[in-house]
Amino acid sequence: MKRWHIVILVALFALVAASCANSDDSSETTTSAASGTATTTTAASGSTDTTAPTTETTEPAAASGPYEHLAAAEAGEYAGTTVSIQGQWVDDEETAFTSSIAEFAERTGIEIVYDGVTDHETVLTVRVEGGDAPDIAQIAQPGLMHSFAESGDLVALDGFMNMEQLAADYSEAWTTLGEFDGSTYGVFYKAATKSIVWYPVQAWSDAGYEPPTTWDELMALSQKIIDDGNGNPWCISIEHGDASGWVATDWVEDILLRSAGPEVYDQWVSHEIPFNDPRVLEAAEIMSGIWYAPEWVWGGNTAINATYIGDIPTYMFTDPKPECWMHKQASWIADFFGSDPDTEELLYEPGVDAKFFYLPSMSGDAPVLGSGDMFIMFNDRPEVEAVMEFLATAEAAKVWAELGGLISPNSSVPLDWYTGYSSAESAAILAGATALRFDASDIMPAEVGAGTFWSGMVEWVAANGAGTETIFAGIEDSWPEG
């Protein structure tokens, strides 16, 4: 398990601004924590001032603003305190997030310890059950939030946050997703659209292919790639350790949203209709026509189950031509297109070497399947409340939005903060959506959404699409009562 522990202080902000350059004016200490080790970077004391202290004092700035505890933090009332955050963001995403909160930590004097964990959901559940929950956690599944809230492990945000301000900054769709049993427990920080398909620009140009705008055109293009002798049209894989299978759930959801429509999708998510409703099985059959059709997917079902999700897009860039030509995945997958070992720069730049198109509709509308990352709170202290309130502001997203790779669900974030091809194009797709629906597996009870749905998809792929009705019936049977 790969883990990072970063404490963000004044010195870390200076290090980020200076591209992590080392300085003799700082010191680094390593301390143990219950979850592992934490690297703490602190500012050096500098030269000693022997001047006698003056009796004059400066009053801290009066706390003001829409969020009470955030205003108090900005006034310095929580300087010297520590707040821990655990999340799934590692590598570039970790750097982007910690950079986004570094200036806030500098201003307020609050130490923010970020723990990036690759098996995040598993580790978080173990920590919560063991009484060692972080102060704040990032999660991508409202269903998991519901489980923590139901067990009494979470702090209700409406007990201290200004809900009017939250409603002003977020649409009802986002605030509702952060609720459980009449109370608000989650604040969304990061949004994404999953209804996109990546392709290698130069190879497509050389082959004379154009992005399809209808589902029928997409199917015809897939067959044409085969007929042209260009190999497999689709790059698909679902191997992701403990989370293997979630990629397949996205496909089921995106197709159902197109084949049956948003109303049926909502009924399915809320279990008003069974998991194995005939319309869901119909969506699975459409999906089978891509995933299990001979020659349509690189490596067939064996490779789908065995190939790491971060490796599969690289097969779009093989020489002398792609081994597969299309890859359905959210914009974050560009981080896995490969990088130069010397410079660590991406070998294939989004918007130049690789672009994406909207996964076409089946009926002329424009439904979009989205997802998001929220923050939830386990420990109730004033400084933790202040950090939660900060994470709900537009400022908390600014650095990451400008770096590229983040779309904020906070409507107060100015559009001109977004840079780069992926963010701009994703924002445009979301803006043009006729219906926006959240990832179903993230909303369903965790036993299903992050359990039997995932494992059922692995089983389904292993069977090369056989036994659909039995597998989907098994998922339906696993739905918790009540």
Q: Which structural traits does this protein have?
A:
alpha/beta; D-Maltodextrin-Binding Protein, domain 2; globular; 482 residues; 17% strand
Give the rounded overall mean pLDDT. 87
How much of the residues is beta strand, in percent? 15-25%
CATH class division of the largest domain: Alpha Beta
**Low-confidence sequence ranges:** 1-62
What is the molecular shape? Answer: globular
Instruction: Specify the CATH architecture of the largest domain.
Output: 3-Layer(aba) Sandwich
Query: What name goes with the CATH superfamily of the largest domain?
Result: Periplasmic binding protein-like II
How many domains is the backbone divided into?
A: 2
Structural class: alpha/beta
**Beginning-to-end CA distance, first to last residue:** 35 Å
What does this structure look like?
- The chain is α/β, with parallel strands linked by helices.
- The chain has two domains: 226 residues, Periplasmic binding protein-like II (D-Maltodextrin-Binding Protein, domain 2, 3-Layer(aba) Sandwich); 224 residues, Periplasmic binding protein-like II (D-Maltodextrin-Binding Protein, domain 2).
- It contains 19 helices and 15 strands.
- Strands 1, 2, 3, 4, 5, 6, 9, 14 and 15 form a nine-stranded mixed β-sheet that branches.
- Strand 4, helix 3 and strand 5 form a beta-alpha-beta unit.
- Helix 10 packs across helix 12.
- The longest helix is centred in the first third of the chain and has 18 residues.
- The chain is globular.
- The N terminus is likely disordered.
